[in-house]
Design a protein that fits this description.
Distance between the termini: 16 Å
Number of helices: 14
Largest sheet: none
CATH architecture: Orthogonal Bundle
Structural class: mainly alpha
CATH superfamily: ABC transporter involved in vitamin B12 uptake, BtuC
Radius of gyration: 20 Å
Shape: globular
Number of strands: 0
Helix content: over 70%
Length: 342
């Protein structure tokens, strides 16, 4: 695929994005278990509809679901891009590195009441999700440390092992919860689901991820230095361990903000960054914004697709993304074996 260059190319991408965004948004507002006419959708979106069932469904159920799907995909895509820059490997993402399962473990333990609660539930669950994600990152770093200098491929394998380990703990919690009353809540997080999306959760997720996105944007020129390799990073006067720790914290924040509210949605951070790098260069100014927007469109489209193909209730979004992601993961695995660099 040829990379997009010049003002005309950027305007073309912007036009395609706006068209897809508007189309998915309108169809998401229209589609559901209760039939709503297109006229109701248009008048409601324009703010000229009367207070009735259709208007309530659109603004309190369907539109929050669309925006939650969008930001979930956007955050996971950026987190995946961060991990791939960190390891210079297209197979790295928050799920293969164990960050998502770590966040899920923190959420599940908090929901079962095994971790201390504070403030309101909608606030303390994301905090424990972030703690789990950060703990998983720290575990990967600890296992990858030591006297022997690990290659990026070895660190990736360590991340996969940690992900499997934490996934086993989550499965154990699900088995335990099957004998308790919490099993439905645990299963909700296990599959990745947008059914409980609302405005309050949406704002908290955005507020939780905002510091990470701000930090990423302010120092975006620093992260690309890691693509040059350890020796060149050191020669340029950067401390590679600080850059890597910063990227891990950013990925943990973004992943936890998603997992805490919609559960794990796999392979977004694998698929979207690959195509973003195919469209424009990683050093171009709009690269991170493109990754953000593509991730949002990908997950919101997957959600819309699940509700169209499996009407009226649809399938959990995590299952749909996995159906796309697993074959793509195998393709990347085959492709990466023929290339020596990211």
């Amino acid at each position: 695929m040829i990379k997009v260059k010049g003002r005309a190319g950027i305007l073309t991408i912007l036009f395609v994005f706006c068209s897809c965004f508007l189309g998915i948004f309108l169809f998401s507002a229209w589609l559901g278990t209760v039939d709503v006419s297109w006229s109701d959708v248009l008048w409601s979106v324009l703010g000229k509809s009367e207070e009735n069932l259709a208007n309530t469904l659109i603004w309190q159920v369907r539109i929050p679901r669309f925006f939650m799907a969008f930001i979930a995909g956007a955050f996971l895509a950026v987190a995946g891009q961060v991990m791939q820059i960190l390891l210079r490997n297209p197979l790295a993402d928050p799920y293969t590195m164990g960050i998502a399962n770590g966040a899920g473990l923190g959420v599940n333990l908090a929901m079962m009441g095994w971790l201390p609660g504070f403030f309101h539930q909608i606030y303390f669950i994301p905090v424990w999700g972030f703690a789990g994600a950060l703990a998983a990152s720290a575990l990967v770093l600890a296992l990858a440390g030591g006297k022997k200098r690990r290659t990026n491929a070895e660190i990736l394998l360590i991340g996969i092992a940690v992900s499997m380990l934490l996934g086993s703990f989550n499965t154990l919690l699900t088995y335990y919860a099957a004998r308790q009353t919490e099993v439905r809540h645990i299963l909700f997080w296990a599959f990745g689901n947008l059914d409980k999306s609302d405005w309050s959760g949406l704002w908290v997720a955005m507020g939780f991820a905002f510091p990470a996105l701000l930090f990423l944007g302010l120092r975006k020129s620093h992260w690309n230095v890691l693509l040059l390799g350890e020796e060149k990073v050191t020669a340029m006067g950067f401390r590679s361990h600080r850059l890597k720790n910063g990227l891990l914290i950013i990925s943990a924040f973004l992943t936890a903000a998603v997992v805490c509210f919609v559960g794990p949605i796999g392979f977004v951070g694998l698929v979207v960054p690959f195509w973003a790098r195919k469209l424009i260069s990683i050093t171009q100014p709009g690269f991170w914004r493109l990754t953000f927007c593509m991730g949002g469109l990908f997950v919101s489209f997957c959600d819309l697709l699940s509700r169209v193909l499996f009407s009226p209730f649809g399938l959990p979004i995590g299952l749909i993304s996995s159906l796309v992601g697993v074959p793509f993961f195998l393709y990347l695995l085959r492709d990466s074996s023929r290339r020596t660099s990211f």
